[in-house]
């Protein structure tokens, strides 16, 4: 377990583990709102995951935070991966126009304990644009892996997943 300061969360550094990650912009400013920033962040996340052989399974990017479901290769790589993601994206955000520093607040990781826990977190991630009022239909939000999940599973299977693991509606994250 890694904990650098009393103000940062402890991080589990596990090999071959599934992680649910949340990261937020400092003071919840909407610095991720522009389409170009969201796309740059996604491209950066995908590149950094590929470089370390981590698998990005699901993702959603909102105006002031993001959530990821991923599978680690080597857990010790996690701090460097997120330092790089946040460093590169912060420079890109700052190049779009002046903004106060810091850009990023932190990231929090959680390893689902079982299948139920995994699907509750996944449904929470997929439902996040609806939860925050960005859209009234998840298919209308382009900055999420919802579309590929829907295509892979099909409408009926995905609807069943949301029904079977409906506890995502009551999930409250400490970092929210």
Automatic annotation (TrEMBL):
UniProt-listed Pfam families: Y1_Tnp
An individual GO BP term: DNA transposition
InterPro entries to which the protein is assigned, alphabetical: RAYT_transposase, Transposase_17, Transposase_17_sf
GO molecular function, one term: sequence-specific DNA binding
Domain called Transposase IS200-like: residue spans: 14-128
PANTHER family: REP-ASSOCIATED TYROSINE TRANSPOSASE (PTHR36966:SF1)
NCBIfam families: REP_Tyr_transpos
Protein name: Transposase IS200-like domain-containing protein
